[in-house]
Amino acid sequence: MAEGFHKENARIAKNTLIIYVRMVFVILIGIVSARFVLQALGASDFGLYKVVGGLIAMLGFLSTAMSTTTRRFINIEMGKPDGDPNRIFNILMVVHIALAGVILLFAETFGLWYIHHVLNVEPGKIPDAVFVFQVSTLVACMGIINLPFQSLIESFEKFILSSLIDIGTNLVKLALVIVLLYWPGNALRFYALCMSVVIFLSLLLYHGCCRRMWPSIIRWNPQRGKENYKEILWFNNWTALSALAYIGRTQGSNLIVNWFFGTFVNGALAVAYELENFSVMSINRISSAAAPQITQNYGGGNHNRSLDLVYKISRYSALLMTVLVFCAWVELDFVLDLWLKDVPDGALLFCQWTMASALVRSFTGGTQTLEQATGRIKWFQIVNSAMSLACLPLGWLAFRLGAEPVTIIQIYIAYSVLYRLVEFWLLHRLLDFKVGSFVRKAYLRPLVVVSLMGLYFAAYRALVPAGMVPAGRLAGIALTFVVSCLLVFCVGMFPWERQSVMSAVRSKFRK
Fold first, then answer.
1. Contact yes or no for 270/37 (Cβ under 8 A)
2. Considering only CA atoms, which of 414, 482, 417, 427 is closest in space to residue 447?
3. Which of 66, 117, 209, 249 is the most buried (most CB within 10 A)?
4. Helix (H, G, I), strand (E, B) or coil at 15
5. Spatial contact of 105 and 120, defined as CB atoms under 8 Å apart
6. DSSP H helical ranges for 250-331
7. At what angle do helices 303-329 and 332-340 cross, to 10 degrees?
8. Between helices 126-155 and 85-106, what is the axis angle to 10°?
9. What pLDDT score was predicted for residue 55?
10. DSSP secondary structure letter of residue 363
């Protein structure tokens, strides 16, 4: 049994490493791309693209829900001794095709009405907004149909393959963005078309790989009878609420900010969300590497193994985000200047608060995968959705009373803390989850590291002069990275983990 656990842990570590190599490439490409896109479009058009894309994201919240549902049911089926992946894959494909039709219907009705009657844009920009919206709708529908193929590759833990596809498509995206810099025509419309090309290429590659590797699983074999779809649709109805809450956090706030402040402030907020996405992406990659084993072990009856993984993933997520956030915080204005060159007004303050929000959210890693594996998600989704969506009218009211744009981010930080407390209560009541044990194993050490890094940050800001030369500011970021990594190693890890790391390092040096 111990040997099996060791092999599974080694596989998770290998998958995590692969995913992080992919993430580094994707983030670097994304950083360069974002700078070029902002340069080519300008703050106003960049904000307009994010707002219009936000409309599709709001209409496509069901797609986000189906992504979670698809991964869960494929992993559960693969964890069963008598599972039938072909059956579940075909059921999921039918549901995704139907969902793409629903998204298209809503986009062509409510979405177009919102653009023509509500959207706050500069005069003469409505035709561009409509064009971007139509292309974004096409991209969303292609992405929905692509989800079962992506989930199948992740369930088989073929992370090298998915990494190569993601890196390749992002390189194509970067090439198209470079062309955008020299495009003589309408840059906003050309950028929208470029994104559709990237998504379509991703769809072709994922579909082609699945057809080559698992033809028997993706073989078209539509299942009849509502009993085949009932459980999936029931589960998806609740995950859709959670997805809607997430969209409310990002795209809903975009629309409210647009309502009160216009597309220039949207551009600053979009920069902050790009930075937050890079940070949160790193945390999600840890969960992605462990999610197949958490769900498959739970589906196979090995609940203790699932819980052990949840403890580890939660702690590792919080520790990693601590390193990322403080390294960015110490010289955030310099990082933004280096990244974007022309930083939109207000972006620095937005970025400071969104990084704080990302740090708070990192403490939720692991438990959501466990909730989905059990299938008992109803009350988690209801409470989460209600609390998250309540932030939107609170933000609207705050802006109505004269609050600053950054207030919406502060409201979401408060929501994240409050919901975590409620989630613990639900975990204990519904799943007999040992909250005290979880907090000791997953939270205690990261909280100590965060506190010590907070003291370091205060000392750094007090002792290090502002406006140093670039080399000095880079040295400050490097120093912060070293200090945070040492604290993670000495305080954030358990003694047996430190011994394991040191043994692995010594073994590598001997070889």
1. no
2. 417
3. 66
4. helix
5. no
6. 253-261, 263-299, 303-329
7. 90
8. 170
9. 60
10. G
Contact between 354 and 409 under an 8 Å Cβ cutoff? The reply is yes
Look up residue 364 and give its DSSP letter.
G
Tokens for 25, please give them.
Answer: 């490439």
Name the DSSP letter for residue 362. Answer: G
Positive or negative, the CA dihedral 210, 216, 220, 225 is negative
The residue type of 432 is: D
Q: Distance between CA atoms of 425 and 433, rounded to whole angstroms?
A: 9
Residue in the structure block whose two tokens are 């894959």: 89
Q: Which helix (H) or strand (E) holds 218?
A: helix 215-218
- Chain centre distance of CA 236: 19
Separation of alpha carbons 392 and 385, rounded Å: 11
Residue found under tokens 């075909």: 90
| Residue 467, φ and ψ in degrees, nearest 5 | 75, 30
Give, for 52, the enclosing helix (H) or strand (E).
helix 2-59
Q: Long-range contacts: 459-467, Cβ < 8 Å, 24+?
A: 460/330, 461/330
HSE, CB side, 13 Å, CA atoms: give it for residue 51: 31
Please name which of 221, 194, 198, 237 lies closest in space to residue 375, comparing C-alpha atoms. 237
> Taking Cα atoms as reference points, which of 352, 138, 342, 129 lies closest to residue 255?
129
Nearest alpha carbon to residue 393 among 375, 408, 409: 408
Distance CA 96, CA 87 (A): 14
> Residue 148 and residue 87: Cα distance in Å, rounded?
13
Tell me the per-residue pLDDT of 9-60, one tens digit each, with 9 for 90 and over.
556 666 666 766 777 777 778 778 877 887 888 767 777 777 776 666 555 4
> How many other CB atoms sit within 10 Å of the CB of residue 225?
7
Exposed, middle or buried: residue 229 (CB in 10 Å: 0-12, 13-18, 19+)?
middle
Residue 106, φ and ψ in degrees, nearest 5:
-65, -40
Q: What type of residue is 308?
A: D
Buried b (16+ CB within 10 A) or exposed e, 86-103: bebbbbbbebbeebbeeb
Would you call 3 helix, strand, or coil by DSSP? helix
Q: Which long-range contacts (CB under 8 A, 24 or more apart) does 374-382 make?
A: 374/298, 374/431, 375/235, 376/430, 376/431, 377/235, 377/238, 377/239, 377/242, 378/238, 379/426, 379/430, 380/238, 380/242, 380/423, 380/426, 380/430, 381/238, 381/239, 381/241, 381/242, 382/238, 382/241
**Dihedral in degrees, nearest 10, Cα atoms 78, 369, 243, 153:** -40
Parts of the chain with a pLDDT under 50: 1-6, 60
Q: What CA–CA distance (Å, rounded) separates 268 from 461?
A: 24
